[in-house]
Amino acid sequence: MTTTVQFVGGPTALIDLGGVRFLTDPTFDPPGDHPIGDRVQVKLIGPALGPDELGRVDAVLLSHDQHPDNLDDLGREFLGRVPLVLGTAGTAERIGGVARELPLWRSVDVGGVRVTGVPARHGPIGSEYLTGEVRGFVLSGPDLPRVYVSGDNASLGIVQEIADNLGPIDIAVLFGGHGRSAVMDAYLTLGADQLARATEILDAGIVVPIHIDGWGHFTEERSAVPAAFAKRGLSDRLVMPAPGEVVILAE
User: Fold this and answer.
1) Does the pLDDT at position 245 exceed 60?
2) Contacts for 233-240 with beta carbons within 8 Å, 24 or more apart?
3) pLDDT by residue (tens digit) across 166-225?
4) Mind listing the pLDDT tens digit for each residue in 144-156?
5) Which of 60, 158, 194, 228 is disulfide-compatible with 190, CB 3.0–4.6 A?
6) Are 238 and 229 in contact (CB under 8 A)?
7) At what angle do helices 192-202 and 224-231 cross, to 10 degrees?
């Protein structure tokens, strides 16, 4: 069965796994400012597609709802149009409706695809009280590739934990960009070199980096990713769709 990914922009991608369609962290706002308390996140690049151009979405995989670079205003509106949103307990409580908690290492069935909740840490050790809980996801099923969606994660140790418990991973959709927080003076997500190292840890045959540009708090250029993969001899595993492009990952 065919597996495809369509990159919308930022952390938003449409993953079609054997006919079941999952959307990651919906962000559809145009460029502009997004206040968070006394800080402002600046969106630099708008989406390649709007909500009406996506077609059917069976479930949203929402790593977290606390930050507008993972769920902006139009993305939040979009949640009312889908049958299921999977995320953390806090997300389920704050959003309500179709939002459902997917606890760590627990699984639910979505159209015959097994979706398992896995850890993610959005910053250094001990930062959870500032960033809040974040969820990653592993998708699997009979005759389907195993797909890991990292969410905003800054820990290679957690990547190792996922490889140990749910490997082998065939396709990894990894969030990067080396986002930096002035509040903690720390990185919130993996950088390009760490994305390449995560690929080695997972032994993933295909890696799709997303959420690597488009916001002002990212500290790396998009070009840093292919350079890092080339340095480790991993260029043949790297897939970087252009905005709006649909790429076949497995058949």
Assistant:
1) yes
2) 234/196, 234/199, 234/200, 234/207, 237/199, 237/204, 237/205, 237/206, 237/207, 238/207, 238/209, 239/5, 239/206, 239/207, 239/208, 240/208, 240/209
3) 999 999 999 998 878 766 677 788 999 999 999 999 999 999 999 999 887 888 989 999
4) 999 999 999 999 9
5) 194
6) yes
7) 50
Question: What are the Cα distances from residue 12, in Å, to 62, 108, 142, 143, 213?
Answer: 10, 21, 26, 25, 12
The secondary element (H helix, E strand) that includes residue 68 is none
Beta bridge partners of 163: none
Residue type, 130: L
**Sequence-distant (≥ 6) Cβ neighbours of residue 35 within 8 angstroms:** 41
Phi/psi at 163 (5° precision): -60, -40
Strand ranges (DSSP E) for the chain? 3-9, 12-17, 20-24, 32-36, 39-43, 59-61, 85-87, 99-101, 107-110, 113-120, 134-140, 147-149, 171-175, 180-181, 186-187, 206-210, 246-250
Q: Helix 192-202 vs helix 156-166: angle between axes, to the nearest 10 degrees? A: 20
Amino acid at 191: G
pTM of the model: 0.95
- Spatial CA neighbour of 122 closest among 69, 62, 179, 203: 179
